[in-house]
Write a structure and sequence with these properties.
The protein is α/β, with parallel strands linked by helices. Helices cover about 40% and strands about 25% of the residues. The chain has helices at about 15-25, 40-50, 60-70, 90-95, 170-190, 200-215, 225-250; strands at about 5-10, 30-35, 50-55, 75-80, 85, 105-115, 115-120, 130-135, 140, 150, 155-170. The strands form two sheets. Strands 1, 2, 3, 4, 5, 6, 7, 8 and 11 form a nine-stranded mixed β-sheet that branches. Strands 9-10 form a two-stranded antiparallel sheet. It is globular and about 50 Å long. The protein starts with a strand and ends in an 18-residue tail after the last helix.
């Protein structure tokens, strides 16, 4: 086993988490699950596989991931989601790592799926994230959405062979629903950070995003799925600035209704 703790945050992931944990068990003897009120079989599955399960209140993606980091057995952390599955090449690569320098973080390539189809082009086809790091130097930011890793300037980033396979969405309806969810979170984050909406962000940015994703990044080569991804990305970009614009208009009322956009984790 690799001296790495795998941290997973969950809510109602029974349909996919078994695959995630099965592969994770080939990496480590320490899998930490931070659950936010699952009502399906997620916890039973996690317990069956011998994971250490903690029921926690939802304080945001970054905050709950940090809770898992604190509970971990090892200092080296591999952070994955319940719908993400390490492949055999990545597992072999992890077993070869020395992990003797906490000032190194590892960037891992992703293979995302739309339904059962792997996506090779567009923004999804270029996806990669730093997911392996040492908790003595690295933590997650505790923003409500789009959390990032915080680490010192001297930290070195290295790439590692293999992929994490991300089973992103089952169909266009699920993708559209997730888009609305994340757009509301993003609007709330922008509002709190003083970012404002304007005509360019509402209308020009979505079009530019479509051209980059579908044309420049060759998203059209993924067929119907590539079209659906590019089309929905346009909608999502417009949505977040539309919601932000609505929140701005509420500033002039006696009691801002920012909380009307509150949402909880439902991955």
């Amino acid at each position: 086993m690799v001296p790495v703790s795998i941290v997973i945050i969950t809510k109602n992931e029974a349909d996919i988490i078994a695959s995630c944990i099965h592969k994770s068990r080939l990496i480590t003897d320490d899998i930490v699950v931070i659950d936010n009120g699952s009502t399906d079989d997620t916890l039973d599955i996690a317990n069956t596989y011998g994971c250490r399960v903690y029921k926690k209140t939802w304080d945001g993606y970054g905050a709950n991931k940090n809770k898992g980091i604190e509970a971990a057995k090892y200092d080296w952390i591999l952070s994955i989601d319940a719908d993400e599955v390490p492949d055999e090449q990545l597992i072999k690569s992890l077993h070869k790592l020395r992990l003797d320098d906490p000032a190194v973080v590892y960037d891992i390539k992703f293979r995302s799926y739309f339904g059962k189809k792997p996506i090779h082009f567009g923004s999804w086809g270029r996806d990669h994230h730093i997911r392996l790091f040492n908790r003595t130097l690295v933590k997650w930011s505790e923003t409500i959405v789009h959390e990032t890793l915080i680490f010192p300037e001297h930290v070195q980033t290295k790439k590692i062979n293999g992929h994490i396979h991300h089973y992103s969405v089952k169909n266009i309806d699920e993708y559209d629903g997730k888009g609305t969810y994340y757009a509301k979170l993003s609007a709330k984050k922008y509002y709190r950070n003083g970012k404002r909406s304007n005509v360019i962000k509402l209308y020009i940015s979505p079009i530019f995003g479509f051209l980059k994703n579908y044309i420049i990044y060759l998203g059209f080569l993924d067929g119907r799925e590539g079209w659906n991804i590019a089309k929905t990305t346009v909608k999502n970009t417009h949505r977040k600035y539309h919601y932000l614009s609505q929140m701005e208009s509420q500033r002039y009322k006696n009691k801002p209704k920012e909380d009307s956009f509150a949402v909880e984790y439902n991955h």
